[in-house]
Amino acid sequence: MRILVTGKNGQLGRSFQKIVKTNTEIDNNQSSNDFIFVSREDLDLSSESNISHYFIKNKFDIIINCAAYTAVDKAAEEPKLANQINHLAVKQLASIANSQKARLIHISTDYIFDGDRNKSYVETDTPNPINVYGKTKLAGEKALQTVMPMNALIIRTSWLYSEYGNNFVKTMLKLGKERDELSVVNDQIGSPTYAADLADAILEIIKHKKFRDVGQMTQIYHYSSKGKISWYELAKEIFKIEKIECEVNPISTQQYQTPAKRPRNTLMNKDKIVKVFNIKISNWKSSLKTCMTILIKQQ
Ligand SMILES: NC(=O)c1ccc[n+]([C@@H]2O[C@H](COP(=O)([O-])OP(=O)(O)OC[C@H]3O[C@@H](n4cnc5c(N)ncnc54)[C@H](OP(=O)(O)O)[C@@H]3O)[C@@H](O)[C@H]2O)c1
């Protein structure tokens, strides 16, 4: 199997590379899967012609799209670029996957929901994004489903963090050591997701018979850790694990204005991915500890 992974240098892409490398070492290089990780230098999703050109020479059995325009606030300033990467490039990848008879696994977001619900979202709930980033991600989902009604899979995830890049966990660790006091939003609810857990789940899916069988309808799945927390609670737990003595004050979204609106509740129900692919959902606290152990060792 030739498997392409885009977004090589992103949080998910880097977590994927680490797991694939570890698995290959454990397997003693006997793995039948050949992973090809690409960055924007190899495959620039902002350029239609670059995408077409890349796939003339390169053929795959599976394409995993971890690349995206992820700057939620900046997306309003660059809507065209965000739309190209999160929507039009996804549509083009779907069309290429069709012509190469490849499967496509695409990563989407909880931000396609407006967050106005009081319970967790299931895959069939109506999306209603409230910011440009969410709108472009939803357009990508829809285009993919239209172009590729079979043989693709969309995984929506939320609050991604890892040892890599910029994320809430790393920001809190840094600020917590610099300051005596911090204010963190307490009325946005969701579940964090450790990127390594998501990469593991995708690898499990690829190995699963239900994924390998051709001619399957394209499906959406939700994936995040187990737990229902706010950013404030996440910050508190980060400081508790690292024994950082920084006071955390809970504040409302109203008190913490950002250029882009954020949904209030993006809790996602994960029953479908568990049932279909037998994916284990880890507890948010244990995954956070795993990631922080690695981060602390790196310091
Ligand atoms: N981060 C979150 O909290 C979150 C939450 C929900 C869903 N998601 C989704 O999860 C997926 C992975 O997110 P992540 O946190 O790993 O993202 P990330 O760390 O921001 O990485 C995104 C990757 O996309 C690449 N990219 C951006 N523009 C590109 C272009 N024009 N051509 C090719 N590659 C390009 C980036 O390349 P460079 O390294 O060169 O910039 C980067 O490697 C995305 O689909 C995202 O929408 C993320």
Low-confidence stretches: none
Number of strands: 12
Shape: globular
Helix content: 40-55%
Q: What is the oligomeric state here?
A: single chain
- Give the strand content: 15-25%
How big is the Rg?
19 Å
Series of H and E elements: EHEHEHEHEEHEEEHHEEHEHH
Bound small molecules, deduplicated = NADP nicotinamide-adenine-dinucleotide phosphate
Largest sheet: number of strands, sense, barrel closure? 6 strands, parallel
- Mean of residue pLDDT? 95
Distance between the termini: 37 Å
The assigned structural class equals alpha/beta
| Main sheet strand line-up | 2-1-3-4-5-10
> How many separate helices?
10
What does this structure look like?
The chain has 299 residues and is of the alpha/beta class. 42% of the residues lie in helices and 16% in strands. It contains ten helices and twelve strands. The protein has a six-stranded parallel beta sheet with strand order 2-1-3-4-5-10, sandwiched between helices. Helix 1 crosses helix 6 and helix 2 (48-57) packs parallel to helix 3 (79-99). The radius of gyration is 19 Å and the shape is globular. The model has no long low-confidence stretch (mean pLDDT 95). The protein binds NADP nicotinamide-adenine-dinucleotide phosphate (NAP). The site of NADP nicotinamide-adenine-dinucleotide phosphate has 28 residues, from helix 1 and strand 4. NADP nicotinamide-adenine-dinucleotide phosphate is lined by residues 6-7, 9-13, 39-40, 43-46, 66-70, 85, 107, 109-110, 137, 157-160, 165.
